[in-house]
Write a structure and sequence with these properties.
Blueprint: H1 20-38, H2 40-51, H3 62-82
Helix pairs in contact: 1-3
Length: about 90
């Protein structure tokens, strides 16, 4: 998904530029937020079983940050390998 959105270099409504370093972490964070939103209780139970009660890493909200970091890595690699903008769709 993050690689596919590399063809959008401008916001379609606001017409402001969307660089890869903004677009990729936002998409990765949003995808993990949706996953965390639907599976919050199950993820919390699993994280408490792994880390223990009362630890800071037991919040499923950390998955949003993880999605943003992984999205940034994927966006960086996708931009360096494939380029950016509509011209990559015609390649």
């Amino acid at each position: 998904m993050i690689w596919i959105f590399g063809v959008f270099t401008r916001h379609p409504v606001l017409m402001i530029p969307m660089h890869w370093w903004f677009r990729a972490p936002a998409i990765g964070g949003w995808m993990n937020f949706v996953l965390m939103f639907f599976a919050y209780d199950q993820m919390r139970v699993i994280l408490i079983a792994i880390f223990g009660v009362g630890r800071p890493l037991t919040s499923p909200l950390w998955f949003v940050l993880e999605g943003a970091v992984v999205g940034a890595i994927i966006g960086f690699c996708a931009t360096r390998v494939g380029g950016e903008g509509p011209e990559i769709a015609n390649a």
